[in-house]
Design brief:
Blueprint lengths: L17 E7 L6 E6 L10 E7 L5 E4 L1 E5 L4 E10 L5 E14 L8 E16 L4 E3 L3 E7 L6 E8 L8 E6 L6 E4 L1 E5 L4 E9 L5 E14 L9 E15 L2
Parallel strand pairs: 1-8, 10-17
Antiparallel strand pairs: 2-6, 3-5, 3-7, 4-6, 7-8, 9-11, 11-15, 12-14, 12-16, 13-15, 16-17
């Protein structure tokens, strides 16, 4: 009297491909893979082992399971991701190694099965990098004259298309000055002079102080991530209003 056992039969893993879309630099990325032992559950099928590795550059992969029974599914053990330590387009593959295991069934040891390739992709965006091009402003006018003004130039100095866009606004201007304008969605490498400061001319005197330019890295149109502050930089202001 003998018994005949069939090998485990791995179904196609899901999802395939694994696409993470656009993410911000430093974000955590992980996608669990689902894999089923399709062998008949009639007492004469071996169990399934799987391990995930062999990730190409820019891709992360890991995890394993053993002795997955016939018609059972594992959806938590195998996982892939992308490396978000640096910006850029990330794509590559990882390999699921599969084995039919006779432990507890046929007792015939392990038999290698055909491996499966997991295709993984995603784009990683760095934060906007603010550069203040106008460090100081000096204005002068007569009492009652039209308020003189000057533009403040800023640049999103982060390189290439894998950069979030930059928003900017002025903080509270010091006494004797006013501020206006805003910048929204400034692309990598682009500059803007939409922020302006003006000198009030209602009162004669000398005025000085600083106004902060507040910078935001915006995920709008790229990662979709919430706004993130990328700091403030000060513009030094001086002005003189003369009596005729």
């Amino acid at each position: 009297v003998g018994q005949v056992f069939r090998l485990a039969a791995a179904g196609a893993h899901t999802p395939e491909p694994v696409a993470f879309g656009n993410v911000r630099i430093g974000a955590a990325t992980s996608q669990n893979l689902s894999l089923t032992n399709l062998s008949a559950n009639d007492g004469f099928s071996e169990k399934l082992n799987a391990s995930l590795g062999g990730a190409s550059a820019g891709i992360t992969a890991g995890g394993a399971f053993n002795l997955l029974g016939p018609q059972a599914t594992d959806s938590t053990s195998l996982h892939v991701g992308i490396d978000t330590a640096s910006a850029g387009a990330k794509s590559g593959t990882a390999t699921i190694t599969l084995v039919s295991d006779g432990t507890g069934t046929s007792g015939l040891g392990q038999t290698a099965l055909a491996s499966q390739t997991v295709n993984v992709s995603g784009n990683v965006y760095r934060l906007a990098s603010p550069l203040l091009n106008t460090g100081s402003v000096d204005l002068a006018a007569r009492v009652g004259a039209v308020s003189p003004s000057a533009a403040i130039s800023i640049t999103n100095s982060s390189p290439d298309i894998y950069t979030e866009r930059m928003n900017a606004s002025l903080g509270v201007a010091p006494s004797g000055f006013s501020g206006s304008g805003s910048v929204t969605g400034l692309a990598a490498g682009a500059s803007s002079s939409a922020l302006t400061v003006g000198l009030n001319t209602t009162t004669a005197g000398s005025f000085s102080g600083a106004v902060n330019v507040n910078f935001i890295s915006s995920g709008a149109g790229t990662t979709g991530a919430a706004d993130a502050s990328v700091g403030s930089q000060a513009v030094n202001l001086s002005g003189n209003v003369y009596t005729p």
